[in-house]
Amino acid sequence: MKLRRLNLSNDVPTSFSCISRSSTAFNERENSEPIPHDLIYELLLRLPAKSIARSRCLSKLWASILRSHDFTELFLTRSSTRQKLLFFCLKDHDFFFFTAPKNPDNNSSLVVPDYHMKFPFVGIGFQICGHVRGLVCLTHLRTVKGGKHTVPEICNPSTGQSLPLPKVKTRRRVNVRRFFAYDPIGKQFKVLSMTWPCYRSYLLCQEYKVLTIGTGKLSWRMVECSVPHQPISGEICINGCLYYYSMVDSVEHRYVIVCFDVTSEKLTSIRKPMEDVKCIVSNLVNYNGNLATLTSDGDSQVIGQNLRTALIELWVLADAEKHEWSKHIYELPSLLPPNFLPKKTYYFIGISGGNEIVMSPRHSSSLFYVFYYNFERGIIRKVEILGTDAFKHRTINTFLHHVEDVKLM
To answer: Start and end of every F-box domain (predicted)?
Structure first.
């Protein structure tokens, strides 16, 4: 499978050049000792991901170090302790990726994001399939074997790579939904694909297929499903389990949360927190490693313009087998400075640090903010993301818990 890479400049960071020159000169001296690998790793781990991507071109020696499993795993581990916000935007037939600190200092109100990569987008059929461990999976229209098909593609904003995946072989006129997940036991990324007829949207899925990435030849294979359903939205992957909302009965209008165990590839279902809740789906979030849902005033996935009167319901899954949830209700602060909250529709992004609900608008204007609501202290703060003027009136998707992964796909 052919990889696409972002064109990187040939310049090498000054710090890396110094390491190379000094280590070479030092090692050429008679009776000298080589620089320990631990020290080299420590120096290289301080470089930004972009610099590491460029520095692989310096020499075969440094390429072998920077591509080694030990180094890339250590870099990912350290990156996990300084997670970021990932911003994704589509403009003028290009996908753009930016990152910013996930938890800026409480005194910081302005953040300049780092630009990472862009790659071309053609036609229709765009869909975000998931964001896991520094990688993003999406679909768009691409030429495959002489024809135009909507197919998935994996992107790594840290390295500038993208990996096109094979098309799912299906019957004509079917709907296709794909989800991206990670198996922490087998250390493998997987894509779950489901299809159902276009002409009967109320029908449940007829085929369930899985593709495992990193096993040589990429090919889709059938898996069994004991919970016939039709996926809707709201996917999230937590500790090797992929969760998403699904319809299981179109006559009685029954909806559940489906759980796909990424390791065993088994599908089970979990009843929603409230069977009589007005909204079909709510926002699935990661709350301290547990599945949770967020709703505003019990009947919406978003918070409307009047944030001063909004009530937020947080449901945390206590026992999946017993379908037990715990309920928590929070009220946004009523005493806020004038014009603190621009009149927009705000979307739940997730929960950061265990006690902050993160919200942001989905469409950029002259100003773009991310809001952090600390429900334990009852404090809300806003951070302005600078440089979004170029994406005015465009949709900006925001993801929490982004880590930088410098492994080459």
So the answer is: 35-75
Same domain membership, residue 214 and residue 158: yes
The answer for residues whose C-beta is within 8 angstroms of residue 189's C-beta and 6 or more apart is 132, 133, 135, 154, 180, 181, 182, 183, 212, 213, 214
The structure tokens 């449901």 sit at 315
- Please tell me which residue, 291 or 114, carries the higher pLDDT value: 291
Q: What is the CA radius of gyration of the chain?
A: 23
The whole domain housing 50 covers 7-67
Residue 72 maps to a domain: no
The predicted pLDDT at position 110 comes to 84
Angle between helix 37-44 and 14-28 (nearest 10): 170
Give the list of residues 6+ apart from residue 316 with CB closer than 8 angstroms, or none. Answer: 287, 290, 291, 292, 325, 326, 328
Of 47, 154, 132, 41, nearest to 83 (Cα)? Answer: 132
Question: What does DSSP say about strands 207-213 and 324-331: parallel, antiparallel, or unpaired?
Answer: unpaired
- Do 12 and 30 sit in the same domain of this protein? yes
């440094």: which residue's tokens? Answer: 62
**How many residues are there in the chain?**
409
Predicted pLDDT at 270:
94
Residue pLDDT, tens place only, 379-402: 888 888 888 888 887 888 899 999
Phi, psi (degrees; rounded to nearest 5) at 17: -60, -40
Same domain, 203 and 249: yes
Tokens of 215: 């096993």
Q: Which CATH number is 301's domain given?
A: 2.120.10
pLDDT tens profile 146-198: 667 778 889 999 888 888 898 888 766 788 899 999 999 999 999 999 988 87
3-state helix, strand and coil shares in percent for the chain, rounded to the nearest 5: 15, 45, 40
Count other C-beta atoms under 10 Å from residue 337's C-beta. 6
Angstrom distance (rounded) from CA 210 to CA 90: 27
| Same structural domain, 390 and 300 | yes
Residue 407 located in a structural domain = no
Q: Are residues 366 and 392 in the same domain?
A: yes
What confidence score (pLDDT) does residue 190 get? 96
Residue 56 and residue 28 share a domain = yes
Contact 399, 86 (CB under 8 A): yes
Ramachandran area for residue 350 (φ above 0: left; ψ -120 to 50: alpha; else beta): left
> Is 62 contained in some domain?
yes
For the chain, what is the domain count?
A: 2
Percentage of the chain surpassing pLDDT 90? 29
Residues 152 and 37 in one domain: no
